[in-house]
Design brief:
Layout: E1 2-9, E2 13-20, E3 23-31, H1 38-51, E4 57-65, H2 71-82, E5 87-88, H3 109-122, E6 126-131, E7 134-140, E8 146-153, H4 155-165, H5 187-214, E9 219-223, E10 239-240, H6 244-259
Parallel strand pairs: 1-4, 4-5, 6-9, 9-10
Antiparallel strand pairs: 1-2, 2-3, 6-7, 7-8
C-alpha cells in the first residue's frame, strides 16, 4: 500500500507523519533549523524511517509551514529523495473549510488543517486548543466553518517572562504544587500554583466564553506538544488528539488528490 509523507513545520518543531490510507503509522517531532539544507534533513528523515523498521513506498506528500524560508528546503528534499513535489497548503488549495474571518489569508495552514480534522473526525461545533509554545484557541461553528481564534502565551512563555522579570524567584519545574493547593506555603509552590492553576483557569475561562458564542454543545479538542502539562488539572477537554494537525493535512491531501 502506498504511503504519504506529511510535514507540519512550526517555528520550534517540525512534526512529520507517515500515513497509509487514513491510518497514521508513525510520527516524529524534530527541531526546526531554518539553516538546515535539504541533504541534512534528508539524512535525518532517512534515519527516522529506518528506525521505524517498515518499508514505505511514498506516492506523495503535503506540507504546511509557518516558517516561509524553510519551504524550498522541504520541497527540494521531496523532489530529490522521492521524485515528486509535495502539495504545499496555500491559497488555491482545496481545504474543505470555509473561513469566515476578516482576512482569510491571515489564517495559517495549520489552523485550517486543525479545523478540517476537528469537523471531520470529531464533529462541529468545535473548540480546538493547540497547546504549543503559544496557546491558540480555534473556533469552528455548527456549519463546520472556521470563524476565528484567540491567541495567548503558552505556559513556558509565561514562566520565562516571570523568571526574567523577578530576579529573586527560583526557576522551578513546571508542574502542579505539592500538595496540590492553590495557596502555596513556600515560594516554589506559590510559583507553581500561580503558573499552572492560573494557566488552567485561563483555559477554562476561554472555553466558557467560546461556548457562549458557539453553543454549549461545542466539542473541546486538545492538541499540541504541551498537552500533558495541564490535562490532569482540568475537565473541560472532551477529546485529546495530539496529531490533529497531521490528520487534517492528510485529509487536505486526499481532498486535492481525489479532485485530480
Amino acid at each position: 500500500m502506498s504511503a504519504i509523507l506529511v510535514f507540519d513545520i512550526g517555528n520550534q518543531h517540525i512534526n512529520i507523519g507517515v500515513f497509509e490510507g487514513d491510518a497514521l503509522r508513525v510520527s516524529w517531532r524534530i527541531s526546526t533549523r531554518v539553516e538546515g539544507t535539504p541533504d541534512e534533513y534528508a539524512v535525518l528523515l532517512n534515519t527516522l524511517l529506518r528506525q521505524s523498521k517498515s518499508a514505505y513506498e511514498f506516492s506523495g506528500g503535503i506540507l504546511a509551514s509557518s516558517v516561509p524560508p524553510i519551504l524550498p528546503t522541504f520541497v527540494e528534499l521531496c523532489r530529490a529523495q522521492f521524485g515528486w513535489l509535495p502539495l504545499v497548503v496555500s491559497a488555491g488549495v482545496k481545504t474543505g473549510i470555509k473561513i469566515r474571518t476578516d482576512n482569510p489569508r491571515e489564517v495559517g495552514a495549520d489552523r485550517v488543517a486543525n479545523a478540517l480534522a476537528a469537523k471531520t473526525l470529531h464533529g462541529a461545533p468545535a473548540i480546538i486548543i493547540d497547546f504549543s509554545p503559544i496557546t491558540i484557541f480555534d473556533a469552528v461553528n455548527a456549519q463546520g466553518e472556521y470563524v476565528g481564534s484567540a491567541i495567548a502565551p503558552g505556559l513556558n512563555i509565561s514562566a520565562d517572562a516571570l523568571f526574567r522579570s523577578a530576579a529573586q524567584l527560583l526557576r522551578v519545574e513546571l508542574s502542579p504544587p505539592n500538595p496540590p493547593l492553590p495557596i502555596g506555603k513556600n515560594t516554589i509552590n506559590a510559583v507553581r500554583a500561580g503558573l499552572v492553576y492560573g494557566y488552567v483557569s485561563m483555559i477554562e475561562g476561554m472555553v466558557a466564553r467560546f461556548k457562549n458564542e458557539l453553543g454549549q454543545n461545542a466539542t473541546v479538542i486538545a492538541t499540541g506538544e504541551q498537552i500533558s502539562l495541564v490535562m490532569s488539572e482540568t475537565r473541560v477537554v472532551d477529546v485529546i488528539d495530539e496529531q490533529l494537525t497531521l490528520r487534517g493535512l492528510q485529509l487536505i491531501f486526499e481532498l486535492n488528490h481525489k479532485s485530480k
